[in-house]
């Protein structure tokens, strides 16, 4: 169908589109077409097009409406996306199957739909999953439906939800911590998982030691370090972090302690790993009546009087359960004179 449009160079496309939108004449019902090094951007009318543009008429295809799961279901389902995996949390099997079918029929880039089949369990903090739907492609035929690639602040992380713990909801919190890291720092991630703290830290020029009890998580971390081009800056260790103290005593300028249910059990280990001055990012889950006090008390008990303890940040990460908060303490240890 012939519609009015403007013709611009590809490098001017985004600026031109914004100018048309500001003028109120950008046509969202037809597609922008690239042809012979020219972009044709549709407009609703030739009247009101900024004077810098010349208009013409051209046959441009109608924009296809994006199909969402809600369009099929008639209601907005609760979904979480992690890479090309869509996650639901439904107790009703019929409702879960209905949502999965709608997801696969929609335009969401979903390779599989998973339903949470258990709570997080065990010292490796993994859960069971029910595969509700799966779509195989040539690129993914050999991949488990629980494996995906998550992208976060310019980094990508390959992971298997059935084998490792990972929360995309902590992306903003991880970015907050990473922004504090300077090149040349010694960063030790005590519970590293697949590397969402360790790999961005290495990308900022830090020398990183990443430890995790889950051997599969360490395998993924090493692969992710290669994917993100920082494998030369990361030492990945599979095992209990308490076992590395002899090798890294007094080494760390910064420690990440993201094990909120039991980080207090590792505070003495953290103090052993801390250098002359060290920042600890200590994650905890506590009652909202005193979310920070227990963590501060545990760190002071382990560090003083060897270190002066300065609490730099008391930060609520998210609500965890009714009257319970997931919090982070940024604490600086400075060795006493």
UniProtKB/TrEMBL annotation:
<keyword id="KW-0819">tRNA processing</keyword>
<dbReference type="InterPro" id="IPR030382">
    <property type="entry name" value="MeTrfase_TRM5/TYW2"/>
</dbReference>
<dbReference type="GO" id="GO:0005737">
    <property type="term" value="C:cytoplasm"/>
</dbReference>
<dbReference type="InterPro" id="IPR040601">
    <property type="entry name" value="Trm5a/b_N"/>
</dbReference>
<protein>
    <submittedName>
        <fullName>Methyltransferase</fullName>
    </submittedName>
</protein>
<dbReference type="GO" id="GO:0008175">
    <property type="term" value="F:tRNA methyltransferase activity"/>
</dbReference>
<keyword id="KW-0489">Methyltransferase</keyword>
<keyword id="KW-0808">Transferase</keyword>
<feature type="domain" description="SAM-dependent methyltransferase TRM5/TYW2-type">
    <location>
        <begin position="79"/>
        <end position="335"/>
    </location>
</feature>
<dbReference type="InterPro" id="IPR029063">
    <property type="entry name" value="SAM-dependent_MTases_sf"/>
</dbReference>
<keyword id="KW-0949">S-adenosyl-L-methionine</keyword>
<dbReference type="InterPro" id="IPR056743">
    <property type="entry name" value="TRM5-TYW2-like_MTfase"/>
</dbReference>
<keyword id="KW-0963">Cytoplasm</keyword>
<dbReference type="Pfam" id="PF25133">
    <property type="entry name" value="TYW2_N_2"/>
</dbReference>
<dbReference type="GO" id="GO:0002939">
    <property type="term" value="P:tRNA N1-guanine methylation"/>
</dbReference>
<dbReference type="Pfam" id="PF18093">
    <property type="entry name" value="Trm5_N"/>
</dbReference>
<dbReference type="InterPro" id="IPR056744">
    <property type="entry name" value="TRM5/TYW2-like_N"/>
</dbReference>
<dbReference type="Pfam" id="PF02475">
    <property type="entry name" value="TRM5-TYW2_MTfase"/>
</dbReference>
